[in-house]
Structure formats: C-alpha cells, structure tokens
Design a protein that fits this description.
Order of helices and strands: EHEEEHEEEEHEHEHH
CATH architecture: 3-Layer(aba) Sandwich
CATH topology: Rossmann fold
Distance between the termini: 12 Å
Largest sheet: 10 strands, mixed
Radius of gyration: 17 Å
Number of strands: 10
CATH superfamily: Nucleoside phosphorylase domain
Length: 221
C-alpha cells in the first residue's frame, strides 16, 4: 500500500475527493486545522488543510512524513483564458494515468488572492503560467527538501476574465485565514450586487471541488 499526502488550503476543497472515497477518519496532525485519512484503490490518502497562503500551509509540514509523494490540491484561478470552471490543471514531475481530460502547465503561487481579471492578465504575461494559487510553491519546495515526488492537481474556480465579487484579501485575520463572518457582512451590505455574485462564486467552487474528486478518483499514480 502506498501513502499519498494531499495538501490544500481549505477543508471544503477535499469535498469531492472525500465523497468518492466514502468513509474517512480524522487524523491528529500537528499544525493542521483539518486532517483526515481515506483509502482508495488500495492506497492510503492523507488530507491536510490549514488555511490559505505559504505561512499557513507550512505549519503542518515541519516534519517529513512517511509518504510516497506529496500532492498540492484544491482550487485555483485561471490565468489562461481557455480554461473554464471545473477544468483540471496538472503540474509537477510525478507521472499519472487518467482518462479524464486535464491541462498540463505551470501553476504560479502568490501570497494573496488574485482578485481582478487585470491582475490575472499581468501574471499570465509575466510568468507564462496557466493558473494561480497561494500554496503550490511552498508545497513543492517541501517535496524537494524531503526528496519526495511532487504533483499539483488543481481545479479552476474562477476564469481568467473573472473579477471576484469581493477583494477577499481585505477579510483575512492576522493569522491569514479568511473571516467568513466578515465576508458575509460585506455581501449583505450590498445584497443586490455582491450577494448574487458571491453565491455564483460559491457554486463555482463546489463545481470545481466535485470535478477534482472525479479526476483524482480516476487517476493511477
């Protein structure tokens, strides 16, 4: 049996994967706000989430785990205009076999949410990456430090031409977590503009997490 470590920012990013694995059990993992274990096709899967960004993702990765590889997973923003909601982006040196369509290309990591279409266009031009997130670079460095195979599998939650309904960077606490209460209050302050867009964005995130589950369930590592 092989063991794979999947690392994301938020617990909800694992919803599609956990649904396809069926029963999962909670893990006590130092530094992680959420950790669980599941099994799929004879392999063990450890899933960790501790919040967005490099500082928070690094907390549960201070000691080398006994695993066969590390996978950065969850949601991402598209930089390539050809990518659509729920499309799968794959990046890294670990070979996989799958019948589910995906796009291979670089994922660029930044320390904040890429909110506007203008920022995404700039990142695309500067880096050549096809998608953006906040954690993959940190996870990749850890995999290299530990001499473990690395892979990034992300699902697109917002297109290159989309500007998000709120600047979510304004609603992070001193530790870096997003304040759902403050986001909800900001949306309620503009119920006819921001609220519908936020509901649509949440729907897109759920669609992306479900697509991620379909992809991972089909993969052979």
């Amino acid at each position: 049996m092989k063991t794979w470590l999947l690392v994301a920012a938020e617990r909800r990013e694992f919803d599609g994967i956990r649904k396809r694995m069926g029963k999962t059990t909670r893990l006590a993992w130092p530094g992680a706000k959420f950790a669980c274990e599941g099994q799929w096709r004879g392999d063990r899967w450890w899933m960790l989430a501790n919040g967005p960004g490099p500082a928070l993702v690094n907390e549960p990765l201070k000691e080398k785990p006994d695993v066969d590889g590390i996978i950065s997973t969850g949601l991402c923003g598209a930089l390539d205009p050809a990518l659509r909601i729920g499309d799968i982006v794959v990046f890294g040196d670990k070979a996989i076999e799958t019948q589910v369509p995906c796009r291979r290309g670089a994922v660029h990591s930044i320390d904040h949410v890429a909110v506007t279409s203008a920022e995404k266009r700039t990142l695309r031009n500067q880096t050549g990456a096809i998608a953006v997130d906040m954690e993959t670079a940190t996870i990749q460095r850890k995999a290299a430090e530990w001499e473990l195979p690395f892979l990034c599998i992300r699902a697109v939650s917002d297109r290159a031409g989309d500007t998000l309904p709120l600047d979510f960077n304004r609603y992070r606490n001193p530790q870096g977590d997003f304040s759902r209460a403050r986001i909800a209050l900001a949306a309620m302050a503009r119920p006819f503009t921001v609220m519908p867009q936020l509901i649509e964005f949440d729907r897109n995130c759920r669609k992306a997490a479900d697509a991620l589950g379909d992809f991972v369930a089909d993969c052979r590592f």
